[in-house]
Write a structure and sequence with these properties.
Low-confidence stretches: 1-5, 7-29
Strand content: under 5%
Largest sheet: none
Radius of gyration: 22 Å
Number of strands: 0
Structural class: mainly alpha
Mean pLDDT: 83
Order of helices and strands: HHHHHHHHHHHHHHHHHHHHHHH
């Protein structure tokens, strides 16, 4: 689930002065290639873009397989909610450490092409182990599968690889659109998972004759097919990138990320407040979605299909809204105010779900819009408060504590639900958002006392940048 945010927030690797596959190159006396085969031509790069977008589809599809089949997983494997949420905790634990090393593995160990294939392969292996655990009714094996799955994209390694490919091929005016399309495809993977896995389980039940752990395992195996497709995309991308390197005489892409843990001691107060906002906010989003299906069934008497649909609306809205809201923020600036709006509206959505019986489509739609807005606004703020040489470390540390928070809150949420029920769980999520809200208010005043750099308008920020260049 945090993999989609890294696509928005990562600094584009490389310098603007470096050549990319989007620039013209001469091939001497060789016969000109057809447009669809020419790495310089837009039509060829559109083909490459299609494979880039589907590269992360499988991992995002499988990440929320447990949420899409919450009722079935708990019943068929004889779990309580706390053990069910361990499936999310085991995904997050490896990312607490590995988030610092995605760029290093790509740049220094594997290279972009082999690294992408290896990360995609780990996604497939993790999903197969998870499904096998269900097939043989061994929950510990399911946990191992989720751990391997988490390792496969530890530190958003697959997202880093995806972004590196994007920069190599689309550096220039098309790049922002490319990142927006990649993020939208990631959200589409999550949405499709939420809305079809229940039907897949029902079809397998009809074929097998009865529900149970074997039916669940087969369903999860089928759910892993998008991972195989993403692996195929990684193989094709590697071939096309290697071919372009030979034709255009370019070097293999680098992430350009530099991470030094010693930089942590120099982080300013505004950055620590941004970390608190990030953790307090996201722990009230992803664990809630992981538990949301049964909540909508029990409180609002929704059918399983209706519950899955309303639970996926956050991802559905985020797919088209993220690039639009990002464009709006780019034009207006005032990042702290936008973060405040996102956090307040998220708190309002959780309070509606907790204390009213209003149609949950209203609250979940508000939650989806707020989530999209915060992802567009909060993460780029990191680059405004730390020097350029510390940006990689800041983002890595941010991902580390976010995954630590998600792992701990996932376990806490399961325990609260088992012992106290959904109302207390929603109060708990509201408390997390309130912590985030207090950090936003503190950030506003700290930034104001320091000159208001985070809350400048886009025109004021552009003027300062122009003066610095002169």
């Amino acid at each position: 689930a945090n993999m989609a945010e890294s696509e928005e927030r990562r600094h584009q690797p490389g310098d603007e002065g470096e050549p990319s596959y989007g620039t013209q190159a001469t091939r001497g006396p060789d016969k000109p290639l057809r447009a669809i085969c020419d790495p310089n031509h837009l039509s060829h790069r559109v083909v490459v873009l299609a494979f880039m977008c589907f590269l992360g589809f499988g991992s995002y599809f499988c990440f929320d397989n447990p949420a899409a089949l919450q009722t079935q997983v708990i019943k068929d494997l004889d779990l309580n909610t706390a053990k069910f949420m361990q499936l999310y905790a085991w995904y997050s634990w490896p990312n607490v450490v590995l988030c610092f090393f995605g760029g290093f593995l790509i740049d220094r160990v594997f290279g972009i092409r082999l690294g992408t294939i290896i990360f995609s392969l780990f996604v497939c292996v993790g999903q197969v182990i998870f499904a096998t655990g269900a097939l043989v009714n061994r929950f510990w094996l399911c946990e191992v599968g989720r751990f391997v799955f988490g390792n496969s994209i530890g530190g958003e390694s697959l997202a880093v690889a995806q972004n590196t490919y994007a920069v190599n091929w689309f550096k220039g005016k098309e790049l922002n659109l490319v990142f927006g399309l990649q993020l939208s495809m990631a959200r589409l993977g999550s949405t499709v998972n939420m809305n079809i896995m229940g039907s897949v389980y029902s079809r397998i039940t009809d074929l097998v004759g009865s529900p149970g752990h074997f039916t669940l395992g087969i369903s999860l195996m089928i759910g892993g097919l998008p991972c195989l497709f993403s692996l195929l995309c990684a193989l094709v991308l590697g071939f096309l990138d290697r071919r372009a390197e030979k034709i255009l005489h370019k070097e293999e892409g680098k992430t350009g990320e530099v991470i030094k843990l010693t930089d942590v001691k120099d982080f300013p107060l505004p950055l620590w407040l941004i970390f608190i906002i990030c953790v307090g906010y996201y722990v009230a989003i992803f664990p809630f979605i992981g538990l949301g299906q049964v909540f909508f069934i029990e409180k609002f008497n929704f059918s399983p299909a209706e519950a899955r649909a309303v639970n996926s609306i956050v991802y559905i809205i985020s797919a088209p809204a993220s690039p639009v809201l990002g464009f709006l923020v780019d034009k207006t600036g005032r990042n702290v105010i936008w973060v405040l709006i996102a956090v307040v509206t998220t708190l309002a959505a959780h309070m509606m779900l907790a204390f009213t019986f209003w149609n949950p489509w209203i609250a979940m739609s508000v939650l989806g819009a707020s989530y999209s807005l915060l992802a567009c606004v909060l993460l780029p703020m990191v680059a405004f408060v730390v020097p350029e040489h510390q940006v990689g470390t800041a983002y890595g540390f941010m991902q580390s504590i976010q995954n630590l928070g998600l792992a701990l809150i996932a376990m806490a949420a399961g325990t609260i639900l088992d012992t106290r029920g959904y109302l207390i769980l929603e109060v708990f999520f509201c408390t997390c958002v309130c912590i985030s809200l207090m950090a936003v208010v503190a950030l506003y005043f700290v930034d104001y006392l320091r000159g208001g750099s985070l809350n400048r308008s886009s025109s004021a920020r552009a003027s300062l940048l122009k003066e610095a260049e002169e």
